[in-house]
Structure formats: C-alpha cells, structure tokens
Design a protein that fits this description.
By secondary structure, the protein is an alpha/beta fold. Helix content is about 35%, strand content about 10%. It folds into 2 domains: about 150 residues, Aspartate Aminotransferase, domain 1 (Alpha-Beta Complex), CATH 3.90.1150.10; about 240 residues, 3-Layer(aba) Sandwich (Aspartate Aminotransferase, domain 2). The strands form 3 sheets. Strands 1-9-8-5-4-2-3 form a 7-stranded mixed beta sheet, sandwiched between helices. A 3-stranded antiparallel beta sheet has the order 10-11-12, with no helix packed on it. A hairpin with a 2-residue loop joins strand 6 and strand 7. The mean pLDDT is about 95.
Length: about 450
C-alpha cells in the first residue's frame, strides 16, 4: 500500500468536517492550477494582440481560416463562425426548416439556449425526458412527442456524454425529421469512434469562456450539407453573401446586387469577433492533447471511487469507443436509497465542508419554467409557447418524471484539468468520506 493510499484511507475514517472533524483537503484553496482553464499562453496573446493592432476585429479572413480548421477537426466539410452559441443554434434551427408554427423536440434538462430562441422563428418546443444514466435525451421518449408540425430533434450531448445517436437517427429517418446536435458541452467527444457534431444534419456549439473549448465569447455551426451551410451564411453573414455564396437559389436572394453587400435574411449579424477566431486557431492546435489529459484525470477520479455507495460516475463505458471530450461541467449520479435517503443537498454541503469541490451540478428542467407555460413575450395575446401552434404543447411538471427530479439525482464534481494523481486521490477521498459516513448525517 502506497503512502498516498494509506493517507486516503485515514481520511475516509476521520470524523466528518461538517460535524467538527478535520477537513479531508484543508489546503484545497491552493490547488487552482489543477482547475484553471483555459490554458492561455504567449502564443494565444500574440494572436489576439495582432488582430487588435491591425484593427481587423470585424473582418473575417482569420475567421475563415479558423472555420476551415474546425471543420477539418469535426470531420465535416463546412463550418461557420458566430459571436456565440445561441446565435449558432438559432441559425441551425432556421436551416433545419423551422418556421412559424413548427416544433422541435428538445430534452428538458439542458441550458435554455438549446431551445428558447426557437420563439424568434415563430416556432415552439416540445420537451422530452432524459435518460437517467446518460442525462441526454431519452430515445424511448421521443416518438410520443412527435406531431404533424415537428421539424427537428435537438440532441444535446449533455455534460460531455454522447447521446445515443444510432437510436435517435433511426427515429429521425422514420419520421423524416432533421437532427440538430448541440455540442456546447462536448467538444471533441466521440460516439463509436466518430466526433459528435458530425452525425446530425447540422450542429452548433458555444465556445464561450468556461466551455472545454474556450475562446472568449464565440460559437460555431457545422454541417456536411452545402445548402444548409449557405442558408446559414445568408441568414446572418451578410458581408459574405456576395463573395462566399455559390448556390444560385440562395445567392439570388441574399446576394442580390446592391450598394455594397447583400442583406442578412434573418436581419441579424452573425459575425465572430476575430480576436476569438485568432485565439481559436491557437487553442485548436493543442486542444486534442489537452483533453486527453483531462480525460485521464477525470477517469482516475472515478476509478478512485469505484464501489463507493450512493454515487455513480457519469461517463462513457470503457471500451465503447466513446469519450467525454473535454468533459465540460462534470457531474456524478446520486443514489440516495443507498445512503439512508440522504438528500443530495446535504451530501454536497458535507463534501464542500471537507474542502472538496462540488462545482455546478445540472440544469433545472425547462418544461417546469413559467416562461414555457404562460409568458406572452411578443404581445400575441396568448402564451408564446403556443402563439402559432396547432396544438397546446405545454406540459405538466410530472409529465417528464426523470427531468422533474434530476436535481435530486445528480451533483457536481471537481473539473480536473491536470492528471495530478496524488491530489485527485485526496478530492476523491472527500467524496468517499461523506458517502461512507452518510448515516451520521441522516441522523443529525
């Protein structure tokens, strides 16, 4: 038994810190290097400063280069840069054919930008439940939500876990639906050896400052479909309409002869700031090797907790040729029935008292929010959710039982950026210490 393992065992048996015992990680506030992200070097700084000094923040020559490199990384022919993931996802909905009165199906447990902007197209959303183990949209709960106006399925690779694309694509083909992938949590993740974001008809993602691929405030749309790519450009990239569009039927509208450029079909500007594009080009050079380090660290954390009651890893199964990519917003799965029904909030507070880090946890279920039930955002005289619908798609809270109780069955874990095993063992010991002494908290 190593010295470290021996120390870890001692930590686990000591009294809980929340009950007056010693902390498992008394120096936890000194480990910032273990968690710091993104990794910014002089190369990133030089790339950004070069754009600033040239005054080309609003040009798109560097962005074009970044788009080409990102498309190659994703394994698709086309990529288009955006100022944020929200705009990229809105455009993905547009090129998927969503118009006034149309519906998309989206998991309830996700960030609002996976769906809320559909209202800007006059469309609406029907929420599906999530799988309790992957936390991604449950393929078994999709078909009951399909209606005559359903146009697309929004697939979110939630917290880095690839969704079950085989099952989802089969449903989409059966019902002639488009598949949109939201890759904001899963840059670089693999599903059966292939990059997520390369399965659907169109994909989009955020690249904002805390994502696993973080370049400031930016987004990207990718697709293998040239028509969708050019539709996206015409929708939001008006400056490129005359130079980059080639399909006659699209260029005839967006690239019509005018004073200087075409006009954006969506009336919105989708240009990525070139400081972000410049940083993105540098980050992409090192991202594949950096996320391998993250994957080793996060998997080691869960390996240290193998067999601990009440907590399960949220990760892909070993040997499945699937990965968690940059493992954005890592979480664990909570089994309160194994811990005397200790509430997850109490468990998390006890871990934090040990000097551990519980991070952010999961999003609340969107289908329960008043904005998706009663809010009349645009003054239509009825809730925006059903303003142009042929049916009332609003859902009761208990209609999606897994989503409704998701916050009771998931918790945040430390997001390690470096595989420093001695420190990772100590953080794992904090979780194990609380789980193994849960009965003391239950009776508190």
């Amino acid at each position: 038994m190593s010295k470290t393992t021996s120390q870890t065992g001692k930590i686990v048996t000591e009294p809980l810190a929340i009950l007056g015992g010693p902390k498992a990680i008394p120096d936890g506030n000194t480990h910032e290097d273990l968690f710091h992200w993104p990794i910014v070097t002089a190369e990133d700084e030089q790339a950004v400063v070069s754009v600033l000094r040239a005054g080309t923040m609003s040009s798109f020559d560097i962005t074009r280069q970044f788009e080409t490199e990102w498309a190659d990384y994703q394994g698709v022919p086309y990529a288009l840069g955006y100022p944020n993931g929200t705009m990229a996802l809105l455009t993905a909905m547009y090129v998927a054919g969503v118009r006034r009165g149309d519906e998309i199906i989206c998991p309830s447990v996700t960030y609002w930008a996976s769906t809320l902007q559909v209202f800007a197209l006059g469309g609406t959303v029907v929420f599906a439940d999530v799988d309790p183990n992957t936390l991604c949209i449950d393929p078994n709960d999709i078909e009951r939500h399909i209606g005559p106006r359903t146009k697309a399925i929004m697939v979110v690779h939630y917290c880095g876990h690839p969704a079950d694309m085989d099952a989802i694509l089969a449903i989409a083909r059966k019902h002639n639906l488009k598949v949109i992938e939201d890759v904001s949590h899963a840059h670089g993740a693999l599903y059966k050896g292939k990059m997520v974001g390369s399965f659907g008809d169109v994909s989009a993602m955020s690249m904002m400052a805390i994502k696993s691929f973080a370049i400031g405030e930016a987004g990207m749309l990718v697709t293998a479909n040239q028509e969708m790519y050019e539709q996206a450009m015409a929708f939001t990239h008006y400056e490129r309409a005359l130079t980059d569009l080639t399909l006659p039927e699209i260029k005839a509208i967006a690239g019509a002869p005018g004073f200087a450029t075409g006009l954006p079909l969506g009336g919105m500007k989708g240009r990525m700031n070139q400081t972000c594009a410049a940083m993105g080009r540098v980050q992409l050079k090192y991202y594949p090797q950096r996320i391998v380090e993250i994957q080793k660290a996060m998997n080691y954390f869960w390996d240290c907790l193998e067999g601990v009651p009440g907590i399960r890893p949220h990760r892909t199964k070993p040997g499945a040729d699937c990965t968690m990519g940059g493992w954005y917003n890592p979480v664990g799965l909570y089994r309160p029935e194994e811990l005397n029904n200790l509430p997850v909030e109490t468990f998390v507070k006890a871990v934090e008292a040990e000097g551990g880090r519980s991070c952010r946890g999961v999003n609340f279920p969107l289908h329960t929010h008043p904005l998706f039930k009663e809010a009349d955002i645009y003054g239509d005289g009825k809730p925006t959710r059903i303003a142009f619908s042929e049916r009332d798609v609003r859902q009761s809270d208990d209609s999606l039982p897994v989503s409704l109780h998701i916050e009771d069955h998931a918790f945040g874990i430390p997001y390690f950026k470096k595989n420093q095993t001695d420190l990772i063992e100590r953080y794992a010991a904090a979780f194990k210490k609380v789980a193994c002494q849960a009965e003391k908290l239950s009776s508190k």
